[in-house]
Structures are given as structure tokens and as C-alpha cells.
Amino acid sequence: MRLTPCNVHFTTQTDRVVYVSSALYKNLNLSRNKSIQLRLGKGRIPTAVKPIKKAGRHVYLTSGVRNAIKIPKSGSVLLKNEDGVVQLGPLIGVLSDAPGSAANPFGSRTGFIKQLLREGSKHGYIFAFTPKDINWQTEKVTGYFLTDKGTFTRKSVPLPDVVYNRLPSRRFDFSPSTNQLRERFIRRKIPFFNWSFFNKSDIYRMLERDSQAARYVPEYHVNPGRELMQEMLERHQVVYYKPSAGSLGQGIFRLSMLPQRGYFARFRKNKSNVLLRFSSFNALYRMLQSKLGGSMRGYVVQQGIRLIEIDSCPIDFRFHMHKNGSNKWVVVGIGAKKAGRGSVTTHIKNGGSLLTPERALSRSFGDRSGEVLEKAKKAAISLAEAIERQHSHLLGEIGFDLGIDQAEKIWMFEANSKPGRSIFQHPSLRAEGKASVEHILDHCLYLSKFRRREES
Predict the structure, then answer these.
(1) Percent helix, strand, coil in the chain (nearest 5)?
(2) Which of 12, 93, 287, 340 is most buried by a 10 A CB count?
């Protein structure tokens, strides 16, 4: 199988003929073929094929061919011939939802999706779509393509070669209809990544079973009872109590015990940071029960770590990981997050601020900051590999929240299969943001088998 870049052109003829420039005709070994199967995504049609005297690598598609298989546009794509099946592509689908307007169909995610579509059009055909846009009977998708002017246009195409999942809602991501959608793609042998949001307790269990990764995981317990929570708090002085399926720092409590002073709880309420003091653990626990309900199910208690600080504010690090075009995990972007005063987490929306990792580490480790950062990168790759070994579905992107304590020990607090992109808003990380998009597309090329040999 050989991948060849070519230029696709449209003609007004209504017959079903594919005209191929002589050099490309020879390159694809089509000299014995009078007809081929032309494929786009999961769609294919029979058509005649004829060579024409034309320099370069060009394919001319008649309107009869274009309309029958739904070729979305002309331009540069890759082409491959396998036993008389000539495939154009790749055809990449980005799955999201569409709560916005016609000009801004994906709400706050529209900018990111536009960036993906803009860069992806340099590699082949790429579109965004929602679950409602799929017609499973005809195996067609009416997706959002980006025009040369940067506006969206709707076009119908076959099911894609690969799907990048960016559904933003946990509730929708775990719904029966989305589970059915995923299974339908898998039955058709269409690679689908990332499968779904992670569950904190599942990730902890995966890493705990891996000897290389377990050392980075703080002590944790799922659905702890009163006695275990009190024991954890007395042993570590600080613990985090957080929802197993939470995100964006929502629903997290930072619980602490100070000898002679009592027990304290920090949490976020109505966009403000709250600090409460209790004279006993029982009083603290009753407060949690009143806020979370008597059963208090679906929560994890996690050992608190004394992280490095700037201006008495803890620092942690978002490591944005990607699979590259060779299917290897790499660190693409790192942002240091400084907690806001009195905040439970370092989330920017909760008053945190963003720094470069070099600046954050130099305050604590000076000349050794580069060495510490390299150590953290190796840990992040080890963690990603460990999760992938235990995970039953395709992964291509992970966001880790890692902490580093004063003794240089690295800790993993969170793993996200659909990480936010706020770190790329920092002026010093915009190049990494572009690299992140390129890695997503490279992995799509890998999964769809549209990598050139010299790139593998």
C-alpha cells in the first residue's frame, strides 16, 4: 500500500469516470484497470478509470462520481490503491454537540473546532458533527465543514475513517444513546478516540495495579466511611474530598486538621471561596452530610500533599499529553497553575493564575529546575502508558494534573481524557497549542492508516 499526495479537481461531466494524470496513473499501478472501486471514508462506488496526459499528480472527478460518493471539495488530499480500491482521504470526523447559533454552532468550543478544521484541511477532509447529524440507515453524516472564508457550511459525506470524540458533557457522554453510538462506530471498524470521560476511582485503580505508575499516586479511598476519613485526616493533616466523576474543580472540599485549633473545610460556593472552622471532626462530618446527602456516595478521599508554593500559594502543573503520528505518548504542553488566595484548587476559573513551568520551578529549585522538569515529563509519559495498558479503548489525549513537593517527589492528582485547553492561552504556550492540534491530526492520520511511509 502506497500513499500518494494528489490534487482533486471537479468536472461538469455527468458520467461516472475518474480521470487520472499519467504520472499518477503509473504511480498507482492502474495500467491493468479499466474500472476501480472509489472510496471515501466508509463509502465506495464502482467507476471507470482513464489516464489523461497531464503533468503532476491530478485526479479529475466527474459530477456523476462526485455526487454519488459525496466528495466534499476539491484540493490536496492523500490517495492510496489497495487491490483496485482507490481511496481518497483521510476523512476525519470531530464529534461534539451544537448548542450555539449557525455562525457559532459549538458554543465555547467553536474556536477550537475551527482551528482543527482549518489545520486538518491541509491533510485531507475534516468536518465536525453531532450525534443527531448521523443517518445510520444511509451511513451518511451531514457535517460542518469550514469554507476558505472561515465560515461553516453543511455537507453530507460517508461515515468517516476516524472519529475524534470531544463531546463536552459527562451526562451525555455516559448516556445510553452515546454508548450505542460508540458501539456502532466500533462495529463498522471506525477508530473512535477518546472513548469517554475518565472516572477518578477507575484511574486510581488502574495506576495502583501498575508497579511503575503506582508510586506517583497519593493514598486514596473510594466512598470512605466516617472512621476512615478521620483516620486519613489525622495521618495526613490535609485531605481532599472530591466527586469521582467531577471536573473543573467542582464539588471539591479541602479538609485540614490543625492541633489545638480544630478542623477546617475549604470549598467553592457561588463563585466564592469559603473557609469554615469546626471544633470536632464529627461537626465537620455533619456539614459534609448536610451538603452531600446522608449516603455521600460517589466520592473519593485523597491524601493532601504539601506542594511547592509561590507567595504562599500552592502550584501544580497541567501536562497536556498526546499520541503522536507514530502512536507514542509525548508531552506537548505544560502549564503551571498557581492557586488563588483561599482557593481549594488551582483552576483558573476559581481564581488561579497561569505561569510557565520554568518560572514556577525556578522559584523552588533554582538551577535544578530543568532537571526536575525532565523528571516530571518522564513521569507523565509513564502514567499515560500505564493508563493505556489498562484501558480497554483507544486513547489519544490525556491531561494530567501533577504536583511536585519540596523533596522533588512527583504526584498525580487528576487524569482527564478530554482536557481543557486554558493553558494554551498563555502567550508563551501558544506554539504548544498549535502543536497540540497538529498531534491530534497526526494521530487521526495514524489511526486511519493515512500516514506516509517516510513519516512512520
Answers:
(1) 30, 35, 35
(2) 93
